[in-house]
Amino acid sequence: xxxxxxxxxxxxxxxxxxxxxxxxxxxxxxxxxxxxxxxxxxxxxxxxxxxxxxxxxxxxxxxxxxxxxxxxxxxxxxxxxxxxxxxxxxxxxxxxxxxxxxxxxxxxxxxxxxxxxxxxxxxxxxxxxxxxxxxxxxxxxxxxxxxxxxxxxxxxxxxxxxxxxxxxxxxxxxxxxxxxxxxxxxxxxxxxxxxxxxxxxxxxxxxxxxxxxxxxxxxxxxxxxxxxxxxxxxxxxxxxxxxxxxxxxxxxxxxxxxxxxxxxxxxxxxxxxxxxxxxxxxxxxxxxxxxxxxxxxxxxxxxxxxxxxxxxxxxxxxxxxxxxxxxxxxxxxxxxxxxxxxxxxxxxxxxxxxxxxxxxxxxxxxxxxxxxxxxxxxxxxxxxxxxxxxxxxxxxxxxxxxxxxxxxxxxxxxxxxxxxxxxxxxxxxxxxxxxxxxxxxxxxxxxxxxxxxxxxxxxxxxxxxxxxxxxxxxxxxxxxxxxxxxxxxxxxxxxxxxxxxxxxxxxxxxxxxxxxxxxxxxxxxxxx
Length: 528
What we know:
Elements: H1 2-23, E1 26-29, E2 37-42, E3 47-52, E4 58-64, E5 67-70, H2 73-88, H3 94-113, H4 122-127, H5 148-151, E6 165-170, E7 174-178, E8 194-199, H6 201-207, E9 218-223, E10 229-230, E11 236-239, E12 244-248, E13 250-254, E14 257-259, H7 263-266, H8 269-281, E15 290-292, E16 295-301, H9 305-311, E17 314-318, E18 329-332, H10 333-338, H11 350-375, E19 377-378, E20 386-390, E21 396-401, E22 408-410, H12 415-418, E23 429-430, H13 432-458, H14 463-480, H15 485-492, E24 495-499, H16 501-506, E25 516-520
Parallel strand pairs: 15-21, 22-23
Antiparallel strand pairs: 1-2, 2-3, 3-4, 4-5, 6-8, 6-9, 7-16, 10-11, 11-12, 12-17, 13-14, 16-17, 18-20, 19-22, 20-21, 24-25
Helix pairs in contact: 1-2, 1-3, 2-3, 11-13, 11-14
């Protein structure tokens, strides 16, 4: 167990340091050529912190009177808490507990992995690879402080698969929109007067003994005959036999948010889906292959107020195979970044790695820019929402985008559409400036920087060339599409936005209240 706990500590320390360095600390001394360490000053406390540099910082040491004192995980958490209390003027006892919970979850996942094997299917292996998870979140694996036996059976990182619960909903209480009819095939037909509703068993456990089960509004009809495979987002599962995704509400805080299907988002699901269909149908004829997985519709039980409505909601999402080019394998970009057995970046030569990166850029970047600059649609194209599809040689040949929940619309371009449900209903509209900021963070800071980082770990000498090629893809798009000022400003900007997840959680704000800090723009300096 000691090795497991040490590994969990190391992964958790890296996440904390990444956040601290990006959001709060100030570099005091560049990386030492002798040992690869960097010194930072914590401005609120004035303390000096020395860490191993690189993509996965570690080995934190605090400057004391007689030298550098190594910091344990617990000591680092305490140091960060003191710095943030002075930095913000606000106390927070919950976040240190949340960070420790995340560390304990990683330890439990590592322990569970010792007795199971990763999926044979390469796509599923990439979905279930994210042991460390978000590299720039202080508590990426927190599970709401529940005991491991309450969540391990549903943990993708432990290679789980499980049957879904099947409920019957009295027909007059069924609420749905779009086309959720694929749900009717996930179980035997319910009794007359009822409709079928699959449910996530973990969510049912969290909800407890609902009154609707006692008065016949809801029936327990058993389980699905085929297992569901939890994906990297936990609450979304894939049913390989049906080639279908189902996204559920899950009343657990994962990173920044309680993962419910909120009514405000469900109302807009079909509108966003129809708009995205238009966006991807309008891709230029000779553009690289890309598609979006449609969120077809949702179903829930309207059995007593908005809380119940949201709690049992399920979104039906397209499967993979109708969208994939022949002979390709989809991989979650987040899995490629973190690593898994069979990762196409492993064992590459520098030349091969550059070819892989160029193809990744060509398939991912233009569709995102097209959606925003041509249609006013901001895709949430972070690492978990992008599938890179590779051919038999492991090279990207297609990109798939998924999850409509985080999609935003530029208000000036969709004013009539955003008023569809009236002024009192929250809408996914944003200003052009906010939309571009969000896109830049998701695409460059979160996605491209992490994929480039994974390549640079294998081939450090390529770092400059990776970003020169990325800059060229943005510049080429601009040249062919009227030289949008947004791209000109992006390529000239000294900094780009990075989400401040440590401060966000310290201030107890939800993910929708994102705040950003300045991050050095890798595209600006990448000039030949």
